[in-house]
Design a protein that fits this description.
Blueprint (H helix, E strand, L loop, with lengths): L2 H8 L6 E9 L4 E8 L20 E8 L2 E7 L22 H12 L4 H8 L3 H12 L26 H7 L9 H16 L3 H17 L5 H8 L2
Parallel strand pairs: 2-4
Antiparallel strand pairs: 1-2, 3-4
Helix pairs in contact: 6-7
């Protein structure tokens, strides 16, 4: 199998999209690919294909291929409905949708910011930009990251609606722990501007994870959750 064919299969790039160029820079452990939409034929037999739609090239970091970083270059015409193309990213985001889901899954599992950078070989600035846009509701996730947080008998599961009730403010608690007050204030501010359901789910996981980690000192707050 040729490299281009392998990449088409691995990265789920299907017609009418195709890889038109590959640069495999082994010295940098990086693979750059250029993707373009196949132009439609404009006439009868032997007619030339119509010119591709002009535009500016966009660049996103994609999921790794083995130990190599994968960078996607593409010019996306304005008429493309690309919500399901996981090898694409948003205009102002540094990552593709597939890579964004991978990162979100790691956050849901409680992996620290610094560890995500180290494990995925990410610049801190890119990850900060990604997380800031999620936190401020300016970006979303096309699919839910998969993660399983440790649960206890007292702490509700991450997908329990009680966490979104807390984040939306529809459920109020008498909170005695200052760190929880500060965290809940921050998360509520973020939650109020986030419209994407998957990013809201990420915030619910973050709050649930705090309760799980500090269960022993949150007996007063957990008792109130049990009554709701």
């Amino acid at each position: 199998m040729k490299l281009e064919e392998l990449l088409h299969h691995t990265l789920a790039i299907h017609a009418p999209w195709r890889i038109v160029r590959v640069r495999n820079d082994l010295g940098k452990s990086q693979i750059d690919i250029w993707v373009s939409r196949e132009a439609q034929r404009s006439g009868w037999f032997f007619a030339t294909r119509s010119s591709p739609t002009p535009g500016s090239e966009q660049i996103w970091r994609h999921i790794n291929i083995g130990n190599a970083r994968c960078i996607v270059h593409a010019v996306i015409p304005s008429d493309v409905e690309d919500a399901d193309l996981q090898w694409l990213g948003e205009d102002s985001q540094p990552f593709t949708r597939a890579f964004a889901r991978q990162i979100a899954g790691m956050f849901m599992q409680g992996v620290s910011f610094a560890s995500v950078c180290a494990l995925l070989d990410l610049p801190v600035a890119d990850l900060w930009k990604f997380k800031h846009r999620l936190d401020t509701g300016k970006s979303g996730l096309s699919a839910q990251g998969s993660a399983a947080d440790a649960n206890s008998a007292q702490v509700p599961a991450p997908n329990d609606p009680i966490w979104e009730e807390l984040l939306s403010g529809s459920l109020q608690l008498d909170i005695r722990i200052l760190s929880l007050k500060l965290l809940l204030t921050k998360l509520r501010e973020q939650f109020s501007v986030i419209g994407d359901s998957e990013v809201r789910n990420l915030k619910a996981h973050e709050l649930q994870r705090y309760f799980t980690r500090h269960e022993k000192m949150l007996s007063h707050e957990l008792a109130q959750l049990a009554r709701n």
